[in-house]
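Before surveying the methods themselves, let us examine one representative protein, written as a sequence plus integers encoding its fold.
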Amino acid sequence: MLANRRVKIVATIGPSTRDRGNLRKIIESGVNVVRLNFSHGKHEEHLEVIRQVREMARELQAPVALLQDLQGPKIRVGRFKSGSTELIPGKLVTFDPQLGEGDGDQIPTDFAELPQVVKPETRILLDDGLMEVVVQEVKGQKVIAKVVYGGTLKDRKGMNLPGVALPVECLTEKDLDDLEFGLANKVDYVALSFVRRGQDIRKLRELVEERTPGTRIIAKIEMLEALDNLEEIISLS
């Protein structure tokens, strides 16, 4: 019955779930796709998960596919002198791509183009949306924003700019290296993050077809720009 099931139940395997006991429970509960999150972990760690999943799938005679989820382009804040800073609702903070270490209301970022792509009222989400600021003003290379939802912002947390078209490539150098690893280990699916247009999928498909033509591609719709190109993206995925 599991082999014929069209609906996929996907489970992400991390450090707390990759031992044999947990893998057995996960597969026995009906999971038929194991997701490997390449935003975290080293290749040798992912390789161990691949080995364990395949061994357990054979032991249980259960068809389990492997999904490699590529990180994609990540925009992050930089590092702080104390490792973090407190964002207080209503207060102003300054994002500065040229800043080495942040402190107080001064926040470094690795996104050099930030001042060029934002404008007043642009929302910036931090740490997977746990915190939010709204741009008030752009002064040269500095972006001044007001804190809407505060919290403790730690080193290297992610930034997300909803509705902003980012001038970044969908496949990074890290993604290409991870993809080579995934295809060499015959993953069944490759998920591409932050897809914006059909060309992003087309580029990935060319790389996949050279190595493992049977590998399927999943387009992750996380950008508003992708909605304008949805039909093309779906047709190529």
Observations:
- The mean pLDDT is 94.
- The longest helix spans residues 43-60.
- The helical segments are 20-28, 43-60, 114-117, 173-184, 198-211, 224-228, 230-236.
